[in-house]
């Protein structure tokens, strides 16, 4: 069965580049999640006025790539303790988050994060919640690292080849 999840972990180029390397990903596209302003563009999102975060819409085949594996992999490539930044990217649009439109999935995500938090001494800053909206980013952002292999990325894409 195909499922959809929205992952925000700093610059969306790296999140997309990483997850696109995994077996079980059906499709992905980057955009702006939970904006207070309809149809924001990159320039507006970067002002912080929209409240949007750069995010990846990930459609996956659950029988091949489980939600649990997605969450383990996501937390292995981001800094869950960072508030409003990842790597060299600073601003509210780079905050981390996990969003869904499915209440059952939301409960599973929250349970995963609660269990993870019990093993940590620092507080996880990653937002967990329902997706309010998602607007596609401009075409030049889509599959950016595939089109520009030398582009900046705060995520080590080679980690996608590692077992979790």
From TrEMBL:
InterPro entries the UniProt entry points to: Met_Sox_Rdtase_MsrA_dom, Met_Sox_Rdtase_MsrA_sf, MsrA_MetSO_reductase
Gene Ontology cellular-component annotations: cytoplasm
EC number: 1.8.4.11
GO molecular function, one term: peptide-methionine (S)-S-oxide reductase activity
Domain of life: Bacteria
Pfam families: PMSR
Keyword terms, alphabetized: Oxidoreductase
Peptide methionine sulphoxide reductase MsrA domain: residues covered: 4-154
Gene3D superfamilies membership: Peptide methionine sulphoxide reductase MsrA
Active-site feature positions: 11
Entry's Gene Ontology BP terms: cellular response to oxidative stress
Signal peptide start and end residues: none
First-tier enzyme category under EC: oxidoreductase
Catalytic activity: [thioredoxin]-disulfide + L-methionine + H2O = L-methionine (S)-S-oxide + [thioredoxin]-dithiol; L-methionyl-[protein] + [thioredoxin]-disulfide + H2O = L-methionyl-(S)-S-oxide-[protein] + [thioredoxin]-dithiol
NCBIfam families from the UniProt entry: msrA
Entry function: Has an important function as a repair enzyme for proteins that have been inactivated by oxidation. Catalyzes the reversible oxidation-reduction of methionine sulfoxide in proteins to methionine.
Family: Belongs to the MsrA Met sulfoxide reductase family.
Name this polypeptide is given: Peptide methionine sulfoxide reductase MsrA
Gene designation: msrA
